[in-house]
Amino acid sequence: MKNLKKYLLLSAISLAIVSCSNDDGSSAANNVTLEFANTFKEKTIVLGGATSTSATVNVSAEGQTHHFSELKYVISNIRLVKNDGNEIPYNANDLDKGATVINQAKPETLNYVLNNIPKGEYKQIKFGLGVRSDLNTLDEVRFPVFYAAAGANDTEMMWEWGTGYRFTKIEGFYESDNKEMSIHTGSTIEDGDDGKQKQGVDAYRDVTLNLPENAVVGSLSPKIVIKADFDKLLSGKSNTIKLSTGTGSDDNATPNIHTAVQMVKFVDNLGGNGTSDISGMFSVVSVK
Amino acid sequence: MEVIKRKIIFIAVMLLISCSSDDYEDIVLDNFEIELVVPSYFPQWNPAALNNKPTKYGVQLGEKLFTDKRLSKDNTISCSSCHIRAYAYADDNTQAIGIQQRAGLRNTPPIQNLLFMKFYNWDGSKLSLENQPIVPIITHEEMDSSILEVIQKIKNDISYRVLFQKAFGDESITPERIYKSIAQYEYTLISADSKYDRVMNNKEKFTSQETYGYSIFTQKCAGCHSGALFTDQSFRNIGFPVNHNSNEAGRARITGDSKDYMSFRVPSLRNIEYTAPYGSFGQFTSLKEVLDYFDAGVLYSDNLDTIFKNNSNRIVLSEEEKEALIQFMKTLSDTRFISK
C-alpha cells in the first residue's frame, strides 16, 4: 500500500515535470519563414517568353536588355546565428529536410519554413547557394524527397553527366532580337578513390547575411525576407559580363555555360566569390 | 574436474560457432577473387579497383546487370545495347542512341582495359568506374531511369537475390552494390591478346608493311598514343570538326579551364578496327578518313595541341604511310576479346 502511494506520487510528479517541459516547449521553439524575393534591382521579377510584354526587363552594366522565362535555384545548409554567435544548423546534412528549390514560377516555393527553431535572438543567417560537395551525389536512397523534387520534369535541377544537382537554372532572352540565354550552374568536383587525384569546379557558395534587426524566435515566429537581386547576374560585384551568342569558348549566353569555363563568373556574381564577397546577389531586406 | 567441464563446454561452444561460420565461409570462399591475366607491360590498376576487386559472383552479377534492359525506363535498352562485344563494347553509331531513339551527345566509348584507366568518359568526368553506371541510368538521352526505379524492378527477381547474396553476403540490393558489381564485370574486360602483343612476346612476327607502319607510328603518333594501351591518358584538342551542341565543351565542362576547351581523352588504339565511326561524335567513318584529315590539316584554335601547332596544324602522311599505319593499327585487334 505504501509502495502504491509512492508510485502514484512519483507518477504524478513525473507527469507534472513532463507537462511542464512540454509547456516550455511551445514557447522554446518556433518557426522561422524565409521569404525569397527575386528581383531586378527593386523590381520583382515577372517571368515571360521571348515576346512577352509583361516580363520584367532589366538592363545590364554592358547595356544589354534581358528578361527571364525560367528562374530556379537551390538553397541548402541553412544556419541561423544567435546574438551570442552560436550557430543553429537547420537539417544542414539532410537535403530532404533542409534544402529546397526556389522556383519563381511556383509562388509556394518562395516561402520556406524552418520548423522548430530554438527560442532566441538571431542576428545573422547563413545558407548555401547550391549543394555542398559531400551531399551533391544524387543519392536517391538517402534523400528521395529532394531527389524527386529536383528531378521532376518541371524542375530539371539535375546534372546527369556530373552526377550532381543544378544549383541555378536560368532561361531567358536578351537584346532586342530576343536571343536565347541559358545559364546553368553546378559543381563538377570529383575525387579519385585514393584521394590523390582531384578535379572539377566547386560551384557551391556559402552566403552570409546580417539581419537588419534581430529575429526574435519564441512566442513569435518571424519571417526573414531575403532579396535575390538577379541584376547582379550580369553586373555583379565580381564580374561584369557581356553576353554573346555563338559556338566559341567565350560565347557565354547559350548553355555552353554547362561548360564550367564561363560558369564560374556567373556563380561568383550570384553567390559571392567566397572571400571578398560572401553575399553575392543576396541581402536581407526585412525581418517581420 | 570443474576446469575440465568448463573446457568441454568451451570446446562445444567453439564447435557450434565454427559450424555456423563454416556455412558462411563456404559462401565467402566460393566467391573467390578472379585472377586477371595482365601482361607485365600494362599500366597500374586504377586505385578504385583495388577496393573493388572482381570476384566470381560480383562479376556474374555485374554481367547480368550490364545486359538487363530493366535498367532503362521503358525496359528497351541495357548497357550492352550500346556496348556491344563485336565492336569492342562500343557500337557503330556516330552518337549513342538511348531509349525512344534519343541521340546522345557523344560516340559510345569502347569498354576495354578500364582497369588501367585513370579517367572515364571522353571528358574524364569520372575518376572511379564505380561512379560511372549511375550516369547512363539517369541521363535523359540514355536510359532515363533512376536507381530506385531499377531496384524496384529487380528486387523480387529471385535470381538477383541469389546473386547479391553470393556476391555480397546478403540479399540486400543497394545502389552501391549495383555500381560495384557492374564495375567488377567491366574490370574483367581486358584486351591484351592482339597480334601486337604476340609480336612483343616473340610469338609472331609483323609483316613488312606492319613493320613499316609501326615505324611511322613510332615517329608520328606515339607522342600521344603511347604505352601498352596506346594512349597517354591525357586530354588534347587536336582540331577535329567541332560538335556545336551547346552542351559540348570537351574536358572544359569539367575543369572550367579554357585550355581544356574541346579537349578529349586520347583514345586507346586497341581494337580500333572495330570501333568506327571515330571522333567524339563520330565525325569520321574510317581510319583512312582520320588519317586524311590529319594530313590535310586540322582546325586551328588557341588551345590546339602543341604537337599540331608546331607542325603547321597537320601530320604529313603519304598514301603509302597511311596504308601501312592502318595495317599496323589492325595488329591491335584482339579477335578473342571481341568474340569471347
UniProtKB/TrEMBL annotation, chain A:
Pfam families (alphabetical): MbnP (PF20243)
Signal sequence extent: 1-21
Protein's UniProt name: Copper-binding protein MbnP-like domain-containing protein
Keyword Signal: yes
Keywords: Signal
Domain of life, per lineage: Bacteria
InterPro entries per the UniProt record, alphabetical: MbnP-like_dom (IPR046863)
Record bears the keyword Lipoprotein: no
Top-level taxonomy: Bacteria, Pseudomonadati, Bacteroidota, Flavobacteriia, Flavobacteriales
Positions of the Copper-binding protein MbnP-like domain: 30-244
Protein source organism: Myroides indicus
PROSITE patterns on file: PROKAR_LIPOPROTEIN (PS51257)
From TrEMBL, chain B:
Cofactor: binding details: Binds 2 heme groups.
SUPFAM superfamilies to which the protein is assigned, alphabetical: Cytochrome c
A GO CC annotation given for this chain: periplasmic space
Record keywords: Heme, Iron, Metal-binding, Oxidoreductase, Periplasm, Peroxidase, Signal
Keyword DNA-binding among record annotations: no
Localization per Swiss-Prot or TrEMBL: Periplasm
PROSITE patterns listed in its UniProt record: CYTC, PROKAR_LIPOPROTEIN
Keyword Protein biosynthesis found: no
Protein name per UniProt: Cytochrome c peroxidase
The organism's taxonomic lineage, starting at the top: Bacteria, Pseudomonadati, Bacteroidota, Flavobacteriia, Flavobacteriales
